[in-house]
Amino acid sequence: MRASESTYAKVAENCSAFAPKENMGMGNATNSMSKNNSNVSCRTCKHFSKDEHCVLDLYDQIVMNHNLK
User: Fold this and answer.
1) How far does CA 2 lie from the centroid of its chain?
2) Among 31, 43, 56, 58, which residue carries the largest CB count within 10 Å?
3) Could you tell me if 53 and 60 are in contact, meaning their C-beta atoms sit under 8 angstroms apart?
4) Maximum Cα–Cα distance across the chain
5) CB-CB contact of 10 with 45 (8 Å)
């Protein structure tokens, strides 16, 4: 995937499946609460793999639907 950090953040903010990784210091925050955190990014989502892609295959759909390119 390898997008810019700002694109990763915008995608995560618009993703209904965003779920922070356990070790990101967001605790047990709910989805809506965690999206107010400045650490919201695809990179901080538990659905983002080590080889930098969304395992739920939502990234491209969100980019297209929200004109985030």
Assistant:
1) 13
2) 58
3) no
4) 31
5) no
Question: Is residue 8 a contact partner of residue 41, using CB atoms and an 8 Å limit?
Answer: yes
Beta-bridge partners for 48? 54
CB of 2 closer than 8 Å to CB of 59: no
Per-residue pLDDT of the chain (69 residues; tens, 9 = 90+): 578 999 999 999 999 999 999 865 545 444 444 556 678 999 999 999 999 999 999 999 999 999 987
Q: Quick one: tokens of 19? A: 């779920």
Q: Estimate to the nearest angstrom the gap between the alpha carbon of 10 and the chain centroid.
A: 8
Residues ≥6 apart with Cβ < 8 Å to 41: 5, 8, 9, 12
Q: Does the model's pTM come out above 0.85?
A: no
